[in-house]
Amino acid sequence: MTTVEQIVNAQKTNVEASFGLASTIFEGVEQLIELNIAAAKSALSEAAQMSHAALSIRDPQELAALQATLLQPASEKAAAYARGVYEIATSTGANVTRVLEATTAEARAEFVAIIESAVKNTPAGSEHGVSLLKSAIAAANNAIESAQKASKQATEVAHANFNSLTTTAVRATKSKLAA
After folding, report:
1. Is the dihedral of CA 150, 152, 155, 160 positive or negative?
2. Number of other CB atoms surrounding residue 88 within 10 Å
3. Tell me: the pLDDT tens digits for 32-52?
4. Residue 142 in 3-state DSSP?
5. Which of 11, 82, 99, 127 maximizes the CB count within 10 A of its CB?
6. 45-84 residue pLDDT tens
7. Contacts of 155 by beta carbon, 8 Å cutoff, 6+ apart
């Protein structure tokens, strides 16, 4: 039978996991805010430098040279910013996944312990039902593990594709500007 202590322990674990998730997500949001502040400061500083440079232009050739020097770093900075956002998102997602996996592993272990405790008190002749229940639990655990593996593989593929895409975009921008 399930005891009050088991229920209280399960609730404590759930509360701790919830606060852990909230803390992890908050850290990710905090990193994103810091990235945005750094990007805004950089943009403001560059805008001031550009204004000074634009005000000192004396002929159209200097204006064309100034425009050319501005476009290339802008694409690289945009790609760097996108990488920063992506890294924060993937890092936060990985941390959330770790917390959830640990929590579900604990919950599954507690559930199995409760089932084992309940099985000890089953009447004679219910062995078939108990074995079906244990098979169902094993199948569910296998399905969860398979889903977690597939999710990790999909994340790795998405990460590789994102890196390839940003690298290609920066190269394409550089070649267009060089032409």
Report:
1. negative
2. 19
3. 999 999 999 998 998 888 888
4. helix
5. 99
6. 988 888 888 888 888 888 877 777 776 677 788 888 988 9
7. 90, 93, 94
